[in-house]
């Protein structure tokens, strides 16, 4: 799906264009959790509450806010009044104390924002295993309340405060006209490292370094929102990897304020779903593009697989191969590493039927290097910031698109220095 | 199993101690395949032939020599007269031409070494996808024949010629006294990158950057050798990873010349198996220790798993996690990354029951950082060249030991420059 294919929506990566979805306010402050002293507590509130769908990480180890958030959504049946995010401390592997302190922040937020504490969804990102400084979050709440607003500047502050090693904020926006009314979607995300989301249903083990918040003024039930969110996540956030490390805190939260009173029907579900998919795809792409130490963004287009699962297996094996990723960092058309990774992916195929292209350059066919292999041209393609590698398995009709990146010495430097 | 536990054998990593297994000769020459101009064609011959057991990579994409080697062993029922190895070109993803040129080298070797061509086992390591320079191998054979000998110096030349990005040769030796006779084992290996062997039965898809040759003068059938080799490989080469990339050429070949006329019986099988296991473990350890860019060798001791498979799943997730590996490169005791990797490994466990130690330092217990966590002491442990991380899952009695290493900027540099 490309932006061009969808006439009814208008995607902007900049939020400086009105309107944002109605029925929400955003705010952020500096609470002293980040060592850098930057914005580190972000809040989004829905004064009239919103219906929510959520997907959490499938990691078996999950952060306290994921445990608490899941519990809250079960109790309320998916009703949310406030989202309370902190960056700088993941509140993961912090035991019962982590749960207790997380709940304390929700109780304090409920008082500040005039809701019940089950309607507060907490999120945390940052280092794992360090006691959670709840007192800093709680002390910051009055300042956040004073900072709330519904302008693009407020939404941008929210997007900035949730960042950790991100170098820039990640936002995306779409407008869909439904029955003559404009329905808005705004999304904010953070990523950078420990990025290989494997999001599943909210019931089950969760934890996240990728945090995504999607806001819309559509009127929809939690059940309807879940049906929209799952496929949007599957094709976007579940199809990216920076380093193959699936975080303990990954969260995608979709909130619908209902402020437009517009509901979906048979005709309008598809345009809205397309707009939501594109917002998610844009954010997913932005996350890889701003990955730790990334020099090149590579889209793996795996085609000709027997099943979608096998297509994804091949994409993931390549996306997680240090040898493929280091070759990309120097624009080295060492396609043999792509084939070797596909070979150990677990997918079934005959190498004689495999066809590989780097950009538009054919490199491998009929079991060997293509006779017209132009190494210089392939190298030139790979010198671009972004390009596509196509690998056709020649086995069936299933495919997938997976966005990943190179592995650079800068990534090693960033992650070797993280906690020291 | 440690060296101390086995009284009957004597393990030496240096070959400069007689005797080597009888019934073999080794030789190597410079054939101009390596750009560096170093030794690149190695041959081992068994003048009276040897019985062989082999394990090849499980990668679905395999190099021509693996396809040809498997075919030869099937035809001869496991009889080998010569092993012909080249370094500098993997002869993988080279199509039918790769098979044809590989066969040509075997035919030429059979003429040179006076055997039938099915008794020649070919091996190749190096870059994938580049046409195989068979003519260089063939032209070098008379010089190899002239260079053959059975002294430690000859065996060392063999071990040096099979190297690619290895910085030093890898050899191990053991002597077992069986019924009053000394039975010798000599092993030579190469590794360095694309090291995450997944070796399986010889029937099935194969290709390899890890090459291991084991020679013994025991008298044993192919069937007996296979029974000894499979468990030795499972606990050694199948329990190491440098970068998680499983090569298309990985090969472990065990040859028994029968020169001692000593056969195994119920009492002597275990001491011999122990000696073989230790030679394999020593070579596997040497491979990780000399991995590309390695600064630290880390043994992951996973205990308390429900099954051996789950123990290995946890070890592999940690061993392949760029975040864990980069933290090790700077001796950063960021144990949260270990727990997160275990969490997405697919193994089932309750984080509250997990216990993690770095060396002897406790770091995580009862779902949180241990109260006595001594970050400085953990950091000091991790500054050593080699140490063990113990992760007890608290679920059962299964365990595994897995040897891996850190991920450094030097690894990135080596592999970003490989083919350009």
UniProtKB/TrEMBL annotation, chains A, B:
Pathway info: Amino-acid biosynthesis; L-arginine biosynthesis; L-ornithine and N-acetyl-L-glutamate from L-glutamate and N(2)-acetyl-L-ornithine (cyclic): step 1/1; Amino-acid biosynthesis; L-arginine biosynthesis; N(2)-acetyl-L-ornithine from L-glutamate: step 1/4
Known EC number: 2.3.1.35, 2.3.1.1
Site entry: Involved in the stabilization of negative charge on the oxyanion by the formation of the oxyanion hole: 125-126
Pfam families on file: ArgJ (PF01960)
Coiled coil feature spans: none
Binding site for substrate: 164, 190, 209, 292, 415, 420
Active site: 209
GO biological process terms on file: L-arginine biosynthetic process; ornithine biosynthetic process
Keyword Acyltransferase assigned: yes
UniProt-annotated site: Cleavage, residues: 208-209
Gene3D superfamilies named in the record: ArgJ beta chain, C-terminal domain (3.10.20.340), L-amino peptidase D-ALA esterase/amidase (3.60.70.12)
Localization per record: Cytoplasm
Catalytic activities: L-glutamate + acetyl-CoA = N-acetyl-L-glutamate + CoA + H(+); N(2)-acetyl-L-ornithine + L-glutamate = N-acetyl-L-glutamate + L-ornithine
Keywords on record: Acyltransferase, Amino-acid biosynthesis, Arginine biosynthesis, Autocatalytic cleavage, Cytoplasm, Multifunctional enzyme, Transferase
Molecular function in Gene Ontology: L-glutamate N-acetyltransferase activity; L-glutamate N-acetyltransferase activity, acting on acetyl-L-ornithine as donor
Recorded GO CC terms: cytoplasm
Function: Catalyzes two activities which are involved in the cyclic version of arginine biosynthesis: the synthesis of N-acetylglutamate from glutamate and acetyl-CoA as the acetyl donor, and of ornithine by transacetylation between N(2)-acetylornithine and glutamate.
Quaternary structure, from the entry: Heterotetramer of two alpha and two beta chains.
Family: Belongs to the ArgJ family.
Official protein name in the record: Arginine biosynthesis bifunctional protein ArgJ
UniProt source species: Edaphobacter dinghuensis
Lineage, uppermost ranks: Bacteria, Pseudomonadati, Acidobacteriota, Terriglobia, Terriglobales
């Amino acid at each position: 799906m490309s932006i061009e294919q969808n006439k009814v929506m208008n995607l902007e990566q900049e939020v400086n264009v009105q309107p944002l979805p109605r029925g929400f306010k955003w705010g952020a402050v500096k609470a002293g959790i980040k060592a850098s002293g930057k914005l580190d507590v972000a809040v989004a509130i829905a004064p009239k509450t919103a219906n929510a769908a959520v997907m959490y990480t499938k990691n078996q180890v999950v952060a306290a806010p994921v445990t608490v958030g899941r519990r809250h959504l079960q109790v309320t049946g998916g009703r949310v009044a406030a989202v309370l995010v902190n960056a700088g401390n993941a509140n993961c592997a912090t035991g019962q104390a982590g749960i207790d302190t997380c709940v304390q922040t929700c109780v304090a937020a409920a008082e500040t924002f005039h809701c019940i504490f089950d309607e507060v969804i907490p999120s945390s990102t940052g280092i794992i295993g360090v006691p959670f400084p709840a007192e800093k979050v709680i002390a910051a709440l009055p300042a956040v309340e004073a900072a709330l607003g519904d302008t693009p500047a407020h939404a941008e502050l929210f997007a900035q405060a949730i960042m950790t090693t991100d170098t820039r904020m990640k936002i995306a926006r779409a407008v869909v006209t439904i029955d003559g009314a404009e329905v808005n979607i705004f999304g904010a995300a953070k990523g950078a490292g420990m990025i290989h989301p494997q999001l599943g249903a909210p019931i089950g083990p969760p934890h996240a370094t990728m945090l995504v918040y999607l806001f819309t003024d559509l009127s929809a039930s939690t059940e309807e929102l879940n049906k929209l969110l799952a496929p949007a996540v599957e094709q976007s956030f579940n199809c990216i990897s920076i380093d193959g490390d699936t975080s303990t805190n990954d969260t995608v939260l979709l909130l619908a304020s209902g402020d437009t009173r517009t509901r979906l029907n048979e005709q309008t579900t598809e345009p809205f779903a397309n707009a939501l998919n594109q917002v998610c795809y844009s954010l997913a792409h932005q996350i890889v593009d701003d990955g730790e130490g990334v020099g090149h963004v590579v889209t793996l287009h795996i085609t000709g697989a027997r099943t979608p699962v096998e297509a994804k297996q091949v994409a993931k094996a390549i996306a997680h191969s240090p040898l493929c990723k280091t070759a990309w960092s120097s624009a080295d058309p060492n396609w043999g590493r792509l084939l070797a990774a596909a070979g150990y992916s677990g997918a079934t195929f005959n190498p004689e039927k495999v066809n590989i292209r780097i950009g538009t350059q054919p490199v491998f066919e009929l079991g060997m290097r293509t006779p017209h292999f132009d190494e210089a041209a392939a190298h030139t393609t790979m010198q671009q910031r972004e390009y596509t590698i196509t690998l056709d398995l020649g086995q069936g009709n299933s495919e997938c698109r997976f966005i990943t990146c190179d592995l650079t010495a800068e990534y090693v430097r960033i992650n070797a220095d993280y906690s020291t």
